[in-house]
Amino acid sequence: MDYAERLENVAVIGAAGKMGSGIVLLLAMEMADVGLKPGNGSRHRVLHAVDVSHQALGGLVKYLRKQVQRAAEKRIVALRTIYADRADLVDNGDIVRQYVNDVLDVVRPTTTLEVAAEANIIFEAAPEDLGLKLKLFARTATDNPAGPWVFTNTSSIPIQEIDEKARLGGRVMGFHFYNPPAVQKLVELIRSRTTTDEVAAFAEALCKNLRKIVVPSADRAGFIGNGHFMRDLLHAVEEAARLRAGMPFVEAVYCVNRVSQDFLVRPMGIFQLVDYVGLDVCQCILAVMNPRLPGENLHSPLIDRLLEQGVRGGQNHDGSQKDGFLQYQQGKPSGIYDPDATRYVAFTEFQAACDARLGPLPEPGLPWKVAVRDPARETLLAQFFGALRSMDTAGAELARRYGARSRDIGLKLVSDEVARNAHDVNQVLLTGFFHAYGPINEFFA
User: Fold this and answer.
1) Among 50, 148, 282, 356, which has the minimal tally of Cβ within 10 Å of its Cβ?
2) Total Cβ atoms within 10 A of residue 267
3) Neighbours of 145 (CB within 10 A)
4) Closest by alpha carbon to 438, among 417, 420, 423?
5) Domain coordinates of the chain in residue numbers?
6) 38: helix, coil or strand?
7) CA 19: distance to chain centroid?
8) Per DSSP, what are the bridge partners of residue 336?
């Protein structure tokens, strides 16, 4: 069965979720594109979009229609060529509408999980819960005579463990899209020792057609992305705990968050990033990694405590940010949660004092948006961090400690052979996390 045949019958489990909806969008467009190629028009293609909620699936269809129309408008020149033999499609609007219809015709929203058992390929985008994933595979792929290939979007669970416990016989591979899948260029591909060559070859071909940047990771819990992110997070928690000896909790969190953003030239502070991902998601990932990587104590009692108090983070259905470590007003951080007082404390009560305590940024300043867009980025970063090294301020000291720890985490991923080399670690942080520079660098050596 070749690439085009495999794409005749596909299922996405968890299709209406934050990750699943993006995966459905990408696959539906690729399946439609394959079907529009000469010689493929007679083949029937179906993508089963499986989720538990009819309401959520209705929202998925609306999302798909909107996103496919945007994509079609951007691809109008190519689409005019694709539909050149259609005399009934006169203007661009006709072509856009036809492409939207062709893509949506592929998708079959359903709450019936068993239809996935009929697919050639199953993409799984369920929550980071091994037990749940195994239940889903038991009903769709385990001992299935059709032998569907399974691509799991897990960001932390070892693929070999999934293969053995789900009895998939090497028909499974880690296909870790980054959020949001339709925008993010990075895909981490994780091959277990039993993943078949055919499954791996298809994954590579699909990534190429989706124009993704592929970074392979060894099959170690957390892989490269969360292998760095979770340890980076735990360092931030430790730094906040250390600072708390001399200041209130909310001020310690603010200082670490601001340093990890402004002093390290990142798109957002570490605690804001945790809020974006969701405290519950981070807790799940740590719960996967900790027992599988003994000796590191990859666990955060602070996150446990906040979750017990109902502090979760994550996004609302419209994409707006939910309150987590930080409180948000009109999408911008405005306060920090105090677990002792069980309330948010507004920035206005402490921000000025904290900024004064941290001290000024190196001159000239280098906002993240400037750094990532400037072709002379490396020179600007070298100047900025060169100035940072010479500064004797609390903020500069925190930044140097943080940058050095980030570098050590990256180097350990290479020495532990999770990543092939420093370039792969840096590529994940540059592409998947939108950093302006990789963690393995000479700025904090």
Assistant:
1) 356
2) 16
3) 5
4) 423
5) 3-217, 225-432
6) coil
7) 8
8) 326, 345
Contacts of 361 (CB under 8 A, 6+ apart): 262, 263, 395
- Residue whose entry in the numeric block shows the structure tokens 């058992």: 117
CA-nearest of 78, 185, 184, 168 to 121 is: 168
Q: Which of 68, 9, 81 is nearest to 43 (CA)?
A: 9
CA distance 99 to 258: 45
User: Residue with structure tokens 């769709």?
Assistant: 140
Structure tokens at 172: 């499974």
- Pairing between β-strand 9-13 and β-strand 46-50 as defined by DSSP bridges: parallel
Q: What is the pLDDT of residue 42?
A: 65
Q: pLDDT by residue (tens digit) across 202-256?
A: 999 999 999 999 999 999 999 999 999 999 999 999 999 999 999 999 999 999 9
Decide which of 3.40.1160.10, 3.40.30.10, 3.40.1350.10, 3.40.50.720 is the CATH code for 3-217: 3.40.50.720
What does the block give as tokens for 332? 């911008």
Angle separating helix axes 249-258 and 351-358, nearest 10 degrees: 50
Q: Tell me which CATH code domain 225-432 carries.
A: 1.10.1040.10
Q: Which two tokens stand for residue 414?
A: 């290479």
Structure tokens at 196: 């078949």
Q: What is the pLDDT of residues 131-159, one digit of tens each?
A: 999 999 999 999 888 899 999 999 999 99
pLDDT at 442: 96
- What does the alpha-carbon distance between residue 422 and residue 412 come to, in Å, rounded to a whole number? 10
pLDDT, residue 259, reads 98
- Asked whether 407 and 159 are in contact (CB, 8 A), the reply is no
Q: Note whether 97 and 36 are within 8 A (CB).
A: no
Both tokens of residue 27? Answer: 């696959």
The H or E element spanning position 328 is strand 326-329
How far is the C-alpha of 226 from the C-alpha of 176, rounded, in Å?
11
Query: 47 forms bridges with which residues in the sheet?
Result: 10, 107
Token representation of residue 109: 């929203």
What's the pTM? Answer: 0.95
Taking alpha carbons only, the member of 123, 336, 334, 329 closest to residue 249 is 336
Q: Exposed (0-12), middle (13-18) or buried (19+): which is 297, by Cβ within 10 Å?
A: exposed
CB atoms within 10 A of CB 423: 14
DSSP label at residue 293: S
Position 284, amino acid? C
